[in-house]
Specification:
169 residues, alpha+beta, 3 helices, binds ligand K1U, binds zinc ion
Amino acid sequence: MTILPIVTVPDPILKTISSPVDVVDDALRALMDDMLHTMYAAPGIGLAAIQVGRPLRVLVMDLADDTENPRPQYFVNPQITWASEELATYNEGCLSVPEQYADIDRPAECKISYLDYNGEQQDIHATGLFSTCIQHEIDHLNGVIFIDYLSNLKKNMVIRKVKKLVKED
Ligand code: K1U
Ligand code: ZN
């Protein structure tokens, strides 16, 4: 497995609308394995394919904490089929916006239909951090980053900080 480089803002590739996957085959599973490995190494709790430069509607997540066994989840062509009117606020981060956090409001609960690691159709009801994280990741598939919900002033400040951080590395 390979740890892939993660693209950071303001790289325009992050604005790409990713394309649906035609077939879940061994090549796609190899990409999902590399994405999971990359996410664990970062470390993070989610990663969309566009964050490693691949414009495909694929994401991986693992919400297990350090005291639990890993619980990898793979979502291919995920679609939000329902979202609650009730909102929840979470202080979000993003591996493409390193070391920056902001409170973001999103539907507290949602239902997602997707293909799993084996290409089987699945439906899931997401609540809590799972709901927040999967909505954040699906945003990536549509070229949206959490800082897009901030004012232009705040967003530009964050981008300046990330540029400085990446240059120093
Ligand atoms: O870049 C990403 O899309 C991943 C992002 C997912 C996310 C986090 C919080 C709210 C919504 C979506 C991250 O994983 S940021 C890093 C992070 O949250 C974390 C890192 C280590 C341990 C626990 C959390
Ligand atoms: Zn992100």
